Amino acid sequence: MSTVTRATLAEQIYDQVGLSRHESADILEDILERMARTLETGDTLKISGFGTFSVRQKGQRTGRNPKTGVEVPILPRSVLVFRPSQLLRAHVNGQSSGENPPEGDEE
């Protein structure tokens, strides 16, 4: 198993599209920047066949320091949520896109 990095993605663009390495890296950076800007504004980002990224607001709540047991407020914050598409989910589970998941695996 390997980690996918910006460098490996840029190299894939270089290999498959045929642009220079610099242009490939610039295209990747532009795509990632546009994705980040979309999420920063609170909009949903959907990549067909891959999944949907969205930002969810979490309200203030009370937490507890596990070491001391003292209650502390956890401030409201935004969290990034990813929901994979059915196609990606099937691919990860080794199924073709037309197969149904085994019984009991529905979410």
UniProtKB/TrEMBL annotation:
<dbReference type="Pfam" id="PF00216">
    <property type="entry name" value="Bac_DNA_binding"/>
</dbReference>
<dbReference type="InterPro" id="IPR000119">
    <property type="entry name" value="Hist_DNA-bd"/>
</dbReference>
<protein>
    <recommendedName>
        <fullName>Integration host factor subunit alpha</fullName>
    </recommendedName>
</protein>
<comment type="function">
    <text>This protein is one of the two subunits of integration host factor, a specific DNA-binding protein that functions in genetic recombination as well as in transcriptional and translational control.</text>
</comment>
<dbReference type="InterPro" id="IPR020816">
    <property type="entry name" value="Histone-like_DNA-bd_CS"/>
</dbReference>
<dbReference type="GO" id="GO:0006355">
    <property type="term" value="P:regulation of DNA-templated transcription"/>
</dbReference>
<keyword id="KW-0233">DNA recombination</keyword>
<keyword id="KW-0805">Transcription regulation</keyword>
<dbReference type="InterPro" id="IPR005684">
    <property type="entry name" value="IHF_alpha"/>
</dbReference>
<dbReference type="GO" id="GO:0005829">
    <property type="term" value="C:cytosol"/>
</dbReference>
<dbReference type="GO" id="GO:0030527">
    <property type="term" value="F:structural constituent of chromatin"/>
</dbReference>
<dbReference type="GO" id="GO:0006310">
    <property type="term" value="P:DNA recombination"/>
</dbReference>
<dbReference type="InterPro" id="IPR010992">
    <property type="entry name" value="IHF-like_DNA-bd_dom_sf"/>
</dbReference>
<keyword id="KW-0238">DNA-binding</keyword>
<comment type="subunit">
    <text>Heterodimer of an alpha and a beta chain.</text>
</comment>
<dbReference type="GO" id="GO:0003677">
    <property type="term" value="F:DNA binding"/>
</dbReference>
<dbReference type="GO" id="GO:0009893">
    <property type="term" value="P:positive regulation of metabolic process"/>
</dbReference>
<keyword id="KW-0804">Transcription</keyword>
<comment type="similarity">
    <text>Belongs to the bacterial histone-like protein family.</text>
</comment>
<dbReference type="GO" id="GO:0006417">
    <property type="term" value="P:regulation of translation"/>
</dbReference>
<keyword id="KW-0810">Translation regulation</keyword>
